[in-house]
Amino acid sequence: MAEATNTARARTRTLEADPLGGTVRSTVLPGGLRVITESVPAMRSVSIGLWVGIGSRDESPTLSGASHFLEHLLFKGTKRRSALDISSAIEAVGGETNAFTAKEYTCYYARVLDNDMPLAIDVLCDVISSSVLNEDDVETERDVILEEIAMHDDEPGDEVHDLFTKAIFGEHALGRLISGTEETISALTRKQIAGFYHRRYTAPEIVIAAAGSLDHATVVKLVRAALKDTALLGGDGVPVPARPQGNLVRTRSAQLSVVDKDTEQAHLVLGCASMTRHDERRFALGVLNNVLGGGMSSRLFQLVREQRGLAYSVYSYTAQYADAGTWGVYAGCTPAKADEVLGIIRDELANVAANGITAAELARGKGMLKGGFVLGLEDTGSRMSRLGKGELLYGELLSVDQLLNRVDAVTLDEANAIASELLTRPMSLAAIGPFDGHDFSGVVRSS
């Protein structure tokens, strides 16, 4: 930290200058709303994101899908703007705006030319703070969301990941669909959605992140002006603490979840519960994941696709939350080859668990992790996302050098220790395809 300034109205700090050229500053406004920016003078655009620390895991069963419903509704109109006003204001200057919902947060964002940053901040702050949530709009968006759910059900390659998450977490909120279900969306009332909005969209839960050609003090001034007559400014609030850390979510033992569907391709995910995003071993897991299924040079891609030609797509991935995590391998193959593909995957995981990876693989896994991270920072949207997630999910922002050093510090022993622990856990299987009567129990039972 290079500088710290405290006033009665706001607390501002300047972080180390980014070696890629950006200077990061952060201000906590009265009430606890946080503004974090990265100034990159060489850019001519600015990306702004309003990150709300509320997602599908924060919903009760009866409110399942409320966060995603709000994502749709907040763009439908405010006290000052209609839905057309919101979209046309940004599009008239060649910008773009959108939103997305995750299990632990929701993000509303825009990307515009630097000269149009005041407009984008004003529109986004208006959307997040002053939505009117008209009854007619609730009904219109209900139909849109039901269509979105139906479309998702027609994409088994996406659906299988939700099936896998459900197998791991069961009835816990992390196991529920972000979109909600047809039943919960049909039952949600305007009163329920509005109540969720006003209870949960509070200043300490919000981070405003911006990156590009900007001045931090100007961004803070614009945010203050946009929110001056709303409940998101005022008081002496402080940022809410991070979610509980540690493996606090009880995951289930190995589960088998199969959906019989008349598809041309079988969709499979084999995996288990993993570590949280706060676990210090997450960097070793990232390296190991790249070695196992992170690219075309990975072990599983080479074995399943390149050497055997059994699948077009095969990869491994991690999902990490405040108090839980998952790791899995996805493969899409001809249904008749599902057992063979799963057998190869299981055998290779057992091999790596027993014998570890090599020094050359460790170096390649590190290179993939570092390269992917740095190359991903070459646009303002990625930089903005890094700021928002860092502040919202971790309560801190590691510099680029700090992150690269953490990856470089991973040793072969550490990666192999993760492999020995993770890959010997009971594995759950999610499968979608024409599997009526097919016996997959051996895959789970042999875990």
TrEMBL record:
Residue span, Peptidase M16 C-terminal domain: 188-366
Residue intervals of the Peptidase M16 N-terminal domain: 34-181
Gene Ontology MF, one: metalloendopeptidase activity
Gene Ontology terms: biological process: proteolysis
Family label: Belongs to the peptidase M16 family.
PANTHER family according to UniProt: METALLOPROTEASE, MITOCHONDRIAL-PROCESSING PEPTIDASE SUBUNIT ALPHA
Protein's name according to its UniProt entry: Putative Zn-dependent peptidase
Organism annotation: Longispora fulva
Phylogenetic lineage: Bacteria, Bacillati, Actinomycetota, Actinomycetes, Micromonosporales
